[in-house]
Amino acid sequence: MARIFIWQAIVRQRLYFYTASFFMICHAPLHSFAAPVDRSAWPLHSVAAPTFAAAGAFTGIPATAAGKDSVLPVRLTFNLSSGNNQVNAELTDIESEYGFTMDNRKAFSRLRKLTRLHIPVWSSRLRSRLFNDLAGVSAKLKWYAIAMKCYYSGQHGLDLPDPACGRQAEDDLPDSTFPATGLSASLPVTARPSPPAIARPSPPVDIGDILASFNDGKTASSYALLVEVKQPIPGKRKSFTHINNVGHMFITLIKYNSDNSFVSRSFGFYPQKSSLLAATPLHPSSPSVVKDDSGHDWDEIAGKFISPRRFNKIIAALQSYDHQVYHLNRNNCTDFGLTMARIGGINIMNAVGRWPLGKGNNPGNAGQSMLEQKLANTDEEFSDPLFASTNVR
Q1: Using an 8 Å Cβ cutoff, are 330 and 213 in contact?
Q2: What is the pLDDT of residues 264-273, one digit of tens each?
Q3: CA 357, 274, 295, 169 torsion: positive or negative?
Q4: What is the pLDDT of residues 312-333, one digit of tens each?
Q5: Distance between CA atoms of 271 and 333, rounded to whole angstroms?
């Protein structure tokens, strides 16, 4: 019996030894039994290259052991770039969704949220992409003042978050650098744009009313001009379609004030038809009227910032149009728009087309030239590329 007890004790002791050895092997850090990990070979921005912060999740390394393995440099580099990765992924998702839904309001809301992210280091390309997206969507919503400020931010790489775009009623935001007079301006807080959900008729407006709105007694910080075109057939170089669909061309003039407010007026030149045949190929002349086009749809748009001198010249040209005779071949809405565009430094080429018994500048050809990028910035003082967008799919 004594031998049996002695044998059992020996077996029990060896069993304890092997069991303890097995658990020591299973719970030892991985790098104790493998070649050292060469982290220098990992791409810094690659999600496939594991950081030790998540090592326990997919490599079998215990989190406690991973946290002691000189992970700080690797984690620091990854975290600095993760903000840009997050924005890039979100931007891609927003752009992809917009391609299917064309929901401008939803896209604006999602883009606006990205401007609030607190990221230490922004990629200049990513920042430009975000602001350009905001500019395009704002223009489609007819928020022209916001669109131009966002476009300026995208071109000049202002630091994020930038109060110039994506924010509409926050008076505690810091100012941002702005062109023209060198004064600072953030998104207007005294005027909140409310674009129409659908196009609305353009009511007549007195030129004196337009001029008075810009004479608001406030110090201007910057000025901008946009030219909008609605083609008879979007994406086609056609002067007209059906009986009376000839399209339309109009402009938007913006004055940004140093107190963070703005004045934005959209208007165009129309015939004031006194008879059925007025402003037609059979009777091309007619009295004229200027109308408020803030609710008018467009297919193509182009814009830029302008100097006070060019702004004043546009105002003077607008005054000269008061009570001018409208003429289908020589002085129509497109002639008006092209004249204002030229004064502002925007040259749109190949705008002439033909129709029965006549020819002249027209929205179909002007819009198609804009769509085909046959336009140029002739302003040496504000030589940035023109802001341009289209609703033609």
Answers
A1: no
A2: 999 999 999 8
A3: positive
A4: 999 999 999 998 999 999 999 9
A5: 9
